[in-house]
Amino acid sequence: MVLSSGSRWVILALVSALSLAQAFSIREVIAFREGQGPQPTDISKLTAEIIVNDGYLVEEHQVTTADGYILTMFRIPGGPGNPPRDGKHVAFVQHGLLCSSADWVVSGPGKSLAYLLVDAGYDVWLGNARGNTNSRRHIFHDPDARNTDFWDFSWHEIGYFDLPAMIDYALQQTGQTSLQYAGHSQGTTSFFIMTSLRPEYNQRIRSMHALAPVAFMSNLRSPFVRAFAPFVDSIDWLMRMLGVNEFLPSSDMMTLGGQMLCRDEARFQEVCSNVLFLIGGFNSPQLNRTMLPAILANTPAGASVNQLVHYAQGYNSGRFRQFDYGLTLNLIRYGSIRPPDYPLERITAPVALHYGDNDWLAAVSDVRELHGRLRNSIGLFRVSDPDWNHLDFTWGIDADTLLYRRVISFMDRYN
Signal sequence span per UniProt (predicted)? Predict the structure, then answer.
């Protein structure tokens, strides 16, 4: 296998990102935000500690999926000026690939989507997909064992098992029969899987807000995906042969690299910024560089190699379909040599597609194709900043005014 010079450069940049990215504990994030310097590492309760520090109430909940994964959810039932009460409308928010529930609170009060939802009167539940730092447990598989089956999943299983389990649990705990859903990137992909393959869940969704929706991917511009997609079968085979199934596991070396290179006074902080731009699109004015250590406290949060492989397969095929195991295993699993497409026509929940012109992972043309396949689309909603990229949907400086308040307004209409 021979890589072009451009592909080698992209992969080198990605490897550099891995060594920089796994930064800080939440205590260090909180101290950083307060200008008090780093504190000891504790990566297990990042989201909860941010929420408590910001003056909001938080509950930690575990739910076990039908296939044995133990997932952690965080509930924010109330906050300053908006105490908990029975009967609140429920809002469920799901993170994207390599991310976690902390994405929705890390920007702080008045900025983060989770806090804005609480302030608007919602009972907010933050999901965590299998394999991230909050959900690395199974009833019998060990994620750290060499020949473990723990990592034998893609975002197909997240949509088929994880989302239904978390949604059912949140509704049971609150006594509600339906909820509002917002998801970013993979949080949209998994939603489309759930509502197409398990259509009974459409009735449990009042409205769904897809932030940077990802289903069709043939027109994406991210050089990260484009560089490795042609070799995805070889990469998948190699990782399996090496017994490496987890992508971006946490490590002390990565933490130290992030502390040294991405903080404000570091000379290489702009390298950290450019690595993020390389993946999702360039929009320098929307990235608060002072917040880089906070962002990198829990991103990357870990995932299965198969999640990335599945996206690369979608880019190669131009279709939104199930995981391709190869001709022989496809015949065994699906009864056909190619994996089946997801039946998007079975999605009846109201879906709003929020997109950005400069999103390198969710191209406008691909979002429009998705829009044309949905039976009950609320509409296509462009973020007005012409440079809005894939990561701005979670970390953009003006995400509150350009996006989140519009999302909440739509949710209110569908209550």
Answer: 1-23
Closest of 320, 322, 222 to residue 11, by C-alpha: 222
Residue 108 burial (10 A CB sphere; 0-12, 13-18, 19+):
middle
188 inside domain: yes
Amino acid, single-letter form, for residue 118: V
Catalytic residue chosen out of the listed positions 54, 324, 359, 366:
359
From the candidates 100, 385, 390, 392, give the one annotated as an active-site residue. Answer: 390
Q: Is residue 169 part of a domain?
A: yes
Whether 276 and 18 have beta carbons less than 8 Å apart is answered as no
The reply to whether 245 falls in a domain is: yes
CA-based nearest residue to 140, from 70, 63, 72? 70
Catalytic: 185?
Answer: yes
From the candidates 101, 185, 207, 222, which is the catalytic residue? Answer: 185
Closest of 298, 329, 253, 337 to residue 135, by C-alpha: 298
Please list the pLDDT of the chain residue by residue as tens digits (415 residues). Answer: 444 444 444 444 444 444 343 333 444 444 544 556 544 344 445 789 899 999 999 999 999 999 999 999 999 999 998 999 999 999 999 999 888 999 999 999 999 999 999 999 999 999 999 999 899 999 999 998 878 899 999 999 999 999 999 999 999 999 999 999 999 999 999 999 999 999 999 999 999 999 999 999 999 887 777 777 777 776 665 555 445 677 665 444 344 444 444 554 544 444 454 454 455 555 768 877 676 666 666 667 778 889 988 999 999 999 999 999 999 999 999 999 999 999 999 999 999 999 999 999 999 999 999 999 999 999 999 999 999 999 899 999 999 999 999 999 999 999 9
Q: Please indicate, yes or no, if residue 383 is contained in any of the structural domains.
A: yes
pTM above 0.90, yes or no: no
Give me the residue label for tokens 């997240």.
158
**Residue range of the domain that includes 160:** 39-413
Q: Reply yes or no on whether 178 is catalytic.
A: no
Nearest Cα to Cα of residue 190 among 105, 101, 72, 96: 96
Residue 310 annotated in active site: no
Residue pair 323/313 in contact by the 8 Å Cβ criterion: yes
Residues 6+ apart with CB under 8 A from 67: 157, 161
Number of domains comprising the chain: 1
β pairing state of 303-304 and 59-64: unpaired
